[in-house]
Design a protein that fits this description.
The structure holds two protein chains of two kinds. Chain A is built from 27 helices and 34 strands. By secondary structure, chain A is an alpha/beta fold. Chain A has five domains: about 90 residues, Ubiquitin-like (UB roll); about 140 residues, Alpha-Beta Plaits; about 230 residues, Rossmann fold (3-Layer(aba) Sandwich); about 160 residues, Dimethylsulfoxide Reductase, domain 2 (3-Layer(aba) Sandwich), CATH 3.40.228.10; about 100 residues, Beta Barrel (Barwin-like endoglucanases). The longest helix of chain A is centred in the middle third of the chain and has 21 residues. Chain A starts with 7 loop residues before the first strand and ends with a strand. The relative contact order of chain A is 0.10. About 0% of the residues of chain A have low confidence. Chain B has three domains: about 210 residues, NADH-ubiquinone oxidoreductase 51kDa subunit (Rossmann fold, 3-Layer(aba) Sandwich), CATH 3.40.50.11540; about 80 residues, Ubiquitin-like (UB roll) (Roll); about 90 residues, Up-down Bundle (de novo design (two linked rop proteins)). Chain B contains 17 helices and nine strands. The longest helix of chain B is centred in the C-terminal third of the chain and has 18 residues. The termini of chain B are far apart. Classes of the chains: A alpha/beta, B alpha/beta. The interface between A and B is medium-sized, with 34 and 33 residues.
Chain lengths: ~850, ~425
């Protein structure tokens, strides 16, 4: 691994001896010695620039003062960082910085957390010698979120360098020259930059500020709560800044093994919904008859309906689903309520992408035991994203992979139905025919076994064989259809074949990990807790017999076996693979109870709507895609809405079925006893950095799993399209998808993806559609209306469509009974 | 009477000297044939080292030594960047070479490429040198056709190529690392040293950067020998230098002389003395970025060491003379304006300091000066000098510091009498 001996260099800084690894910059060496050297342009994410000249120090035997940020330590170096000469020089540099900087700290958003302000205070610059006119340029908007105040800019170029060196988006540049230099955009439409918000914290002054936070509060007046972002499964650590019961902004809280301080724009800016909640009271009645009711009435109604169904049709006529954005504590309670208190086996937790039931042992083992932490993924020799556009599905992980590639031999490749587009992308692309991952897997295994590395999969296989440690991250294109479990098994077979090949060729074997990039914040936790019975066999308190699958549950509802659906935090009309099945199920049930925060397609259809507190008010734990258990903390926003636990508890009481704890801490502590991976933890002792869940197997265990996978019989069928539907639907997840959170948050519409049918040019001409034309995309199951877009990265024979377009839901085209969704595209009218 | 020593300028006056046939008829490319036919690369480097040839771009660094810094075991590619970004006010020698004798520079480039093992020559040409750029391209085309450039040059097995790249008209791109950044397609900002260009230059490959005049001298050094070259000039400043004389002299122009002749001789004998029979008030010995020397120091010998001892620098060889009628404050303002406008904006002291000084000058010339402005100017000089990222900042302060110290009375007169420069002055755009 990365544990090679580092050569140490010893130097003296201000009389203190310090030993640091070779190649360390002087600023970092000083920090190691506990000496702070001021700097504006340097940043740990960025290459040194040496522009602000604040870090001038005296190095013995050098004729001039040198900048510490650009100096690499040498053995025996003697450095002075504090003397009259240096203080005078830094004061002079500060004076230069302040020449064109307006003295408007009282109205500047950065006041209180401004590096220039702090240093000006520290060096006691109280009077300016500058009596000339300052340069000025009217403010502008760099992006819908970034407000640029040119007057305050000190041209440290951190923002420009971040967009060049870190994200590679080239969003910003410097225009003009000398004192007239200023930050600018290129003024042309480029690929979206999902990390632009990070330049707000990078800016050492108040030049770039958040449009959403501007003039909303002073930094020292804000309540600050560290929690975990709930927008995707990466689980970036964030800080909620609140004031007067309002969430005013979200800033990153650095977690070295998760986000390293980066945050995507969705995580940073899509919070407005929390101050703009559509439901303040329970509601009943459909359509125009909808009316607000009291909690008392709502609870009574729900209890009555549940009791009625149980009485008439038995407990199994109750169908309960919990979405994948709830906390682990919610899930535990949900399981117990569903199974023990209500006694139904028709309950489900999570996204339902992988039907574990078809081969529980192999699938669960791969899910739990083959996983890697984010840190491990980043250290792997080979990172493979399978069926996944990582920047859209796990943005900060994608960014960190990009960084991990810098200056290393590490490789990042993609195996997908399309070539994930954009500047951040993988170094090599391998494409399987859309919908035919299984056939491709069969071919890949053959190539591995034959040892002949030519042809379509040769490069991919060579990569798999060469790399010592491999990290596979698989995403939506592999997961979001009915064969997801088979695809996962096929992936396991590829892994086993690669390992066998290495063993046969005497190559040392490192970890070969598989991590799913699931869509929602706690989808990993949902996966664990949905399948808890497999993990803790023999524990008396937990049910042993398997419960329903998501598909099975909807089918039972559609068939009239389930009479009442109780959905918590889930919007299956958009997220389940087959929309018409969900629609049929919703139509067939007698009563639909929806417990959620925001308006969505499902809440519209609820007979009874129970609003709950939003994410900033939630306590509990999440598990991220790198299997790190992290604590969610409620901010100081006081809400009148109950939590999920509180709603369920009151419902149980109304039903006369006992009660349940409403304290996440108690639930966590109880469950911790049962799961060995967290048995050493209690809710209050979860470290701020969370805790890695280690399900890793020993060698014996791995051998047993390998045998188990070996035993699985798997076909690798190739599906061919019928004549009248010649194209294959590929559904792609977009980070900025127009989900309820985005719709109800300010400004987010500016970055929402367009409803596009992204096609290969050949398919466009074959279908008779032109660029930008309104088109109808239809399958045997239904049709949606989109706009045609020519895309080089789409493979011939497939159409890539966003899978969360409220106006054109792609799951309308899909039937859960078909292996592949074949479609055709025609001009509309 | 001071004699001219025409080496780089030996074809001065020869018609159509930029053409290959004319150049060849006058002994052109003989040095290259000699090098390829008779000398090993190391011998060429040793010869140039022994000749004492120093860089003529401003710093005066020994050329042979610079060449020897390039790692020989590097797998390549390695590059030569010929610095034709001549932008120093008062300097026009490189322009003369590329417009009138481009083949001599190209020959020098090829010899250097052979000596150091460089596979590509980039001539980084100043953006405004339209004619010069075309002349080099024309000359390179001729050289390619004749087999002096390209693969297997003159059957020797050595190959090198030449590309002309024009900048966008930035003074800063004459600084070697900014030149490389610009050559790579980036904004013309200087880079951190180390790594030095000789080990990590253009596209992070070893790169030799030499001035046009330096390279154009190389063929003569090879054909006439190191001893010949070393025999000229002074002990430490060996050889010859093209001196660009401008300002208040009767015959401004380029005069190629041996190092060590008195500056007064260059001004009086070659350039015809101060114009209109006036007296000299002072002069820039090496272009606008070197400190002004007063009239009393006009007899200083023209070599690196003597001029340094007198308190200035030989720089790029631009001798700018100003007569007794010159308005020093206005002159300093003009030059400060140049530096404010040309500062690349990368580092704070240079970006802010140059404009600040310009604003003070404008105020003084508009009759709004204060006595404390003189101390302020000197203090800004202190804060800027040796603290900027590249030597640009040091260059920008030299005229301010030297004129405030030498001609303080003129500044004080402006301030005391609220004198306004005769043409009312449009302030720099804000």
């Amino acid at each position: 691994m990365d544990t090679q001996e580092e050569n140490l260099v010893t130097l003296t800084i201000d009389g203190r001896q310090v030993s640091v690894p070779e190649g360390t910059r002087l600023t970092d060496a000083a920090k190691a010695a506990g000496i702070d050297i001021p700097q504006f342009c340097s940043h740990r994410w960025l290459e040194p620039l040496g522009a602000c000249r604040m870090c001038l120090v005296r190095i013995e035997k050098m004729p001039k003062l040198e900048t510490a940020c650009t100096t690499v330590v040498r053995e025996g170096m003697v450095v002075t960082t504090d003397s009259d000469e240096i203080r005078a020089a830094r004061k002079a540099m500060l004076e230069f910085h302040l020449l064109n900087h307006p003295l408007e700290c009282p109205v500047c958003d950065k006041g209180g957390e401004c590096e220039l302000q702090d240093l000006t205070e520290a060096y006691g610059l109280t009077k300016s010698r500058y009596v000339e006119d300052k340069l000025a340029r009217p403010d502008s908007m760099l992006t819908p979120f970034l407000h640029m105040n040119y007057k305050r800019c000190i041209l440290c170029k951190r923002c420009v360098r971040y967009c060049e060196e870190v994200t590679g988006s080239h969003l910003l540049k410097v225009d003009q020259r000398g004192a007239w230099s200023h930050i600018a955009t290129y003024g042309v439409e480029g690929p979206p930059d999902y990390f632009s918000g990070n330049v707000i914290e990078l800016c050492p002054v108040g030049a770039i500020t958040s449009e959403l936070f501007r003039f909303r509060g002073r930094s020292w007046e804000l309540g600050k709560t560290r929690t975990v972002c709930n927008q995707c499964a990466v689980g970036c650590n964030v800080e909620l800044h609140t004031r007067h019961n309002e969430l005013l902004r979200i800033v990153p809280a650095v977690h070295p093994d998760v986000d390293d301080g980066h945050l995507c724009d969705r995580g940073r800016f899509a919070y407005g919904y929390a101050n703009n909640l559509p439901f303040k009271h329970p509601m009943t009645g459909k359509g125009g008859e909808r009316r607000e009711i009291s909690w008392e009435e709502a609870e009574n109604t729900a209890a009555e309906k549940i009791a009625e169904v149980v009485e008439k049709h038995g407990a199994n006529a109750l169908g309960l689903i919990a979405g994948s954005g709830l906390t682990n504590e919610d899930y535990v309670a949900f399981r117990l309520i569903a199974h023990t208190h209500l006694g139904t086996e028709n309950f489900f937790i999570g996204e339902g992408l992988i039907d574990v039931g078809s081969n529980p042992l192999a699938i669960l083992h791969s899910l739990f035991f083959d996983s890697a932490s984010i840190g491990e993924i980043l250290r792997s020799d080979l990172i493979v994203s399978v069926g996944c556009d990582l920047i859209e599905e796990a943005p900060v992980l994608a960014l960190r992979i990009k960084q991990a590639l810098k200056g290393s031999d590490r490789k990042f490749i993609s195996l997908c139905a399309y070539e994930p587009p954009g500047y951040w992308g993988p170094q090599e692309h391998y494409c399987y025919d859309a919908g035919n991952f299984l056939a491709a897997a069969g071919e890949i295994i053959q190539v591995i076994e034959s040892g002949n590395t030519g042809g379509r999969w040769g490069g991919l296989v060579e990569n798999l064989q060469k790399a010592r440690t491999v990290a596979v991250i698989y995403g939506q294109d592999m997961l979001r259809h009915r064969n997801a479990d088979k695809c996962l098994l096929a992936l396991l077979k590829i892994k086993q074949a690669a390992i066998r090949w290495r063993k046969a060729n005497g190559i040392e074997r490192g970890h070969f990990s598989l991590n799913p990039a699931l869509r929602s914040a706690n989808a990993t936790g949902a996966l664990v807790l949905n399948n808890l019975e497999f993990l803790v066999r023999g524990q008396a308190e937990l049910p042993e017999r398997p419960h329903a699958t998501l598909r099975g549950l909807f089918e039972k509802a559609a068939a009239g076996e389930v009479k009442l659906l109780y959905l918590t935090g889930v919007n299956p009309l958009m997220t389940f693979v087959d929309r018409s099945l969900v629609e049929r199920a919703m139509k067939a049930v007698d009563y639909l109870i929806v417990q959620d925060v925001l308006t969505n397609e499902t809440t519209e259809r609820a007979d009874l709507l129970l609003p709950v507190a939003p994410w900033p008010c939630r306590e509990g734990t999440y598990v991220n895609l790198g299997w790190r258990l992290q604590r969610l903390r409620a901010s100081d926003i006081v809400t009148s809405l109950p939590t999920n636990l509180e709603v369920w508890n009151r419902l149980l009481i109304k039903l006369g079925k006992g009660s349940h704890s409403t304290t996440p801490a108690r639930i966590f502590d109880e469950i911790a006893r049962l799961i060995p991976a967290i048995s050493h933890l209690s809710f209050d002792t979860i470290p701020e950095t969370g805790s890695l869940l280690d399900f890793r197997l020993d060698e014996e265990g791995e051998r047993r799993v390998a045998e188990e996978i070996e035993k699985v019989k798997l076909d690798f069928p190739r599906y061919e399209p019928p004549k009248d539907y010649p194209l294959v639907l590929v559904q792609k997840l977009y980070l900025m998808r127009n989900s309820p959170r985005m719709r109800l948050s300010k400004k987010m519409d500016a970055v929402a993806p367009e409803p596009l049918a992204q096609m290969h040019p050949d398919d466009m001409s074959a279908s008779g559609v032109a660029e930008g034309q309104d088109v109808v995309v239809e399958s045997v199951n239904g049709e949606i209306r989109l706009v045609a877009r020519r895309c080089d990265w789409v493979q011939r024979g497939s159409v890539v469509v966003g899978n969360y377009l409220p106006e054109a839901p792609s799951n309308r085209l899909v039937s859960v009974d078909e292996n592949i969704t074949y479609i055709r595209v025609r001009p509309s009218q | 009477m001071t004699e001219l020593t025409k080496v780089v300028m030996r074809l001065d006056g020869v018609a159509e000297a930029h053409r290959l046939d004319v150049y060849e008829a006058n002994g052109g490319y003989k040095a290259l044939r000699k090098v390829l036919g008779e000398m090993k690369p190391q011998e060429v480097i040793d010869e140039v080292k022994a000749s004492g040839l120093r860089g003529k771009g401003g710093a005066g660094f020994p050329a042979g030594l610079k060449w020897s810094f390039v790692p020989q075991d590097h797998p390549g590619p390695k590059y030569l960047a010929c610095n034709a970004d001549e932008g120093e006010p008062g300097t026009f020698k490189d322009r003369w070479i590329i417009e009138n004798n481009p083949h001599q520079m190209i020959e020098g480039c090829i010899i250097c490429a052979y000596a150091v093992g460089l596979s590509h020559i980039y001539v980084y040409c100043r953006g405004e040198f339209y004619e010069g750029k075309r002349k080099i391209e024309q000359a390179a085309k001729e050289a390619y056709e004749k087999g002096y450039l390209g693969d297997n040059i003159l059957g020797s097995g050595f190959s090198t190529h030449l590309t002309v790249h024009t900048g966008a008209g930035s003074y800063e791109c004459g600084e070697e690392t900014a030149l490389l950044t610009s050559l790579e397609g980036g904004r013309g900002h200087p880079k951190i040293k180390p790594p030095f260009p000789a080990s990590e230059g253009a596209w992070r490959k070893p790169t030799v950067i030499n001035n046009v005049e330096t390279l154009a001298t190389v063929p003569a050094v090879i054909s006439q020998g190191a001893r010949w070259h070393a025999g000229m000039g002074t002990e430490k400043s060996k050889g010859i230098k093209m001196v660009c004389v401008s300002g208040h002299v009767e015959r401004p122009g380029i005069y190629e002389v041996e190092f060590g002749v008195p500056i007064s001789a260059i001004i009086n004998d070659l350039a015809g003395g101060v114009w209109q029979g006036r007296q000299i008030k002072g002069y820039f010995p090496g272009g606008s970025s070197t400190p002004v020397l007063p009239a009393e120091k006009v007899d200083v010998p023209y070599d690196y060491e003597s001029i340094a001892e007198a308190g200035s620098m030989l720089g790029s060889g631009a001798l700018i003379v100003f007569d007794s009628e010159t308005d020093i404050v206005r002159m300093a303002e003009v030059i400060t304006r140049f530096y404010a406008w040309e500062s690349c904006g990368k580092c704070t002291p240079c970006r802010e300091g140059t404009r600040w000084m310009l604003q003070i000058y404008e105020r003084i010339l508009n009759g709004g000066g204060r006595m404390e402005d003189l101390e302020l100017l000197l203090s800004i000089c202190d804060n800027l000098e040796f603290k900027s990222f590249c030597p640009f900042g040091d260059a920008a302060v030299s005229v301010v510091r030297s004129t405030v110290s030498l001609y303080r009375d003129e500044y004080e007169e402006y301030i005391r009498e609220h004198k306004v420069y005769r043409r009312r002055f449009t302030p720099v755009k804000h």
